[in-house]
Amino acid sequence: MSNRHLFLKSGFLKTPAQNGVGRYICQLQRVVLKFCKNHGSSRGLRDFVEKELVNFARENPGTVVYLKPRRHRAPVIVAEYLNGDRQYINCYSYTCEEVTKWLNLLKTQTGTNEGIRLRKLWHTDHPSIQGPWTPYTFRDPALNLANFPNEELGKPLHQTQSATEKLLEIFEKQKRNIKDLETNRE
Description:
One of its GO terms (molecular function) is structural constituent of ribosome. Belongs to the mitochondrion-specific ribosomal protein mL43 family. This protein is an alpha/beta fold. The protein has a domain of 84 residues: Glutaredoxin (3-Layer(aba) Sandwich), CATH 3.40.30. 30% of the residues lie in helices and 17% in strands. It has a 4-stranded mixed sheet, with helices on one face. It has a two-stranded parallel ribbon with strand order 1-6. Helix 1 crosses helix 3. The radius of gyration is 31 Å and the shape is elongated. The termini are far apart.
């Protein structure tokens, strides 16, 4: 095991952990496209602004897009996320398609930096060395070699009758009890 994680910043996850379980919330809040109007290295970003920007803005109404023309500077995409993180992408001599791919990637990310060690809300002094428990932890290894469907493995373990048979038995018992009550009244 390496100790690389000791030199990383540590922190808690700031984005919703189950984003998309109920309703998906895009974490990309703002995109700033910085480019030069004349320089050749900004051609791909300028082409994106002319051809694809309107479609991108229509497809992502929750993301604000700013254009910032600058003289004699390299083109840059700045993405700002809901958790406050910023991500910079240098777009020097990118094509329009590459800019589109980068924006789609930024749109689907959560904005968390990869250079952060995530901390958990629980702690133990004696962590398990056996690994996490799974439903297959104590299963018979012979199941790995079984051919399915297998009638022997499909037999119920504890139940001798089906649920339908059990319901029919309860219904018949209730009918008998009702008849017994009626005969006792007479």
